[in-house]
């Protein structure tokens, strides 16, 4: 089982274990890649230095700072409820790198975007492999 970052709108934010294969499009590049095209061979989800909890000797990142997303006015008007499931890469410094939506709640009224905006502000103690900090997929 691979831990995933889950943002549950207006309730709880936390880490959820979910099984399944990794896939889906890259929706948001890390800040250092903003505004530039990322070549397919530079796909951050397939980087050789990226680890998850299925790799022997790897410990998962630990949340140090988490924030809760807010409902957008459009979502309040339409009374949308539910959760947005996000997957992210935790960088060596504990910041959030690439993010992708694993389960969308609402791309029209901005709930997915709000969840992504808030996840970018989370901070982690990075994951480790054999005692050294590593980039990790959550």
Quick structural summary:
The chain contains two helices and ten strands.
Task: List the topology elements.
Blueprint: E1 2-8, E2 13-18, E3 50-51, E4 58-59, E5 62-65, H1 73-78, E6 83-90, E7 96-103, H2 111-119, E8 123-125, E9 127-129, E10 132-137
Parallel strand pairs: 3-10
Antiparallel strand pairs: 1-2, 1-6, 4-9, 5-8, 6-7, 6-10, 9-10
- CATH top level is Alpha Beta
Structural class: mainly beta
Helical stretch count?
2
Domains (count)? 1
Helix content: 10-25%
Q: What series of H and E elements makes up the topology?
A: EEEEEHEEHEEE
Features:
138 residues; mainly beta; TolA/TonB C-terminal domain; 8-stranded mixed β-sheet; two-stranded antiparallel sheet; 2 helices; 36% strand; disordered N terminus
What does this protein look like?
This protein is mainly beta and 138 residues long. It contains two helices and ten strands. A hairpin with a 2-residue loop joins strand 9 (127-129) and strand 10 (132-137). Residues 1-38 have low confidence and may be disordered.
């Amino acid at each position: 089982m691979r831990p995933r970052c889950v943002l549950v709108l207006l309730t709880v934010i936390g880490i959820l274990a979910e099984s399944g294969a990794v896939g889906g499009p890259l929706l948001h590049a890390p800040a250092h890649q903003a505004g530039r095209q990322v070549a397919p061979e530079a796909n951050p989800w397939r980087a050789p230095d990226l680890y998850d909890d299925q790799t022997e000797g790897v410990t998962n990142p630990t949340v140090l700072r988490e924030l809760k997303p807010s409902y957008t006015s459009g979502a309040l008007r339409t009374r949308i409820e539910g959760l947005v499931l996000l997957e992210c890469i935790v960088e060596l410094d504990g910041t959030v790198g690439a993010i992708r939506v694993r389960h969308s709640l609402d791309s029209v009224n901005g709930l997915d975007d709000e969840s992504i905006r808030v996840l970018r502000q989370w901070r982690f103690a990075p994951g480790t492999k054999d005692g050294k900090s590593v980039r990790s997929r959550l």
